[in-house]
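tool=predict chain=A
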Amino acid sequence: MNKIIELRNIFFSYDKQTILEDINLDILKDDFLAIIGPNGGGKSTLLKLILKLLEPKKGKIKNFLKENQIGYVPQNTNLNIDFPITALEVVLMGHKLKKKKLFGYSKEDISCAMHSLKQVSMDNFADSKIGDLSGGQRQRVFIARALCANPKLMLLDEPTASIDVKGQKEVYDLLKELNKSIAIVVVSHDISVLLNYAKNVAHINKNLVYHHLKNIEEKYDDNEHLCEVELLSALGKKQVCCNSTHV
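tool=predict ok
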């Protein structure tokens, strides 16, 4: 199999409150997985478990990737936008393990950071202050920072929150392009992700229900429109008839 992450029988709780219960999930090397569900359902917690920022109370998580091959773009990238730092300097933070304490960043680090900015079409804004960029542009810079580690998997937590519609589309179009070589896992409330970008969906509300979007789309002929209401209705059902499965 092309499996890069495996979660088996994962339980997690804060104090005595169960957040995740018996979670089973495989992430494949070419995946574009959308994680959806209600607020407080455990979506962000799941990402933190994969990143080993949290440890499960029960169950096992296997990472088949090499060290530092997971990129992460957290929520709230609009914080501290008044800090006088350029887009290039933000991306260079992705090289913190290579930074020289006395002499700053090497030419190789800067070259790599510029390449990452070019991948997200932000190389012309390298010297721009991060606070002068639009929300969509800032998000692309933070994606470039995650790209500095040359990841095989990128996790993004609500990457288009507080971004206008044009900026949202630009971010997801970028992720679709990156998905040609990187597995993408995105937490989102944006239904357009399901309709236009995701290959698979994990609905999380303490438990996880996994859906292959291709199975749902195949229920419709080419001339039929798969509307948002129909898709959400299908994803909301747990019966075999809607092609949902537990890994």
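Residues 136 and 166 are 8 Å apart (CA to CA). Strands lie at 3-14, 17-28, 32-36, 58-63, 70-73, 153-157, 183-187, 200-205, 207-212, 244-245.
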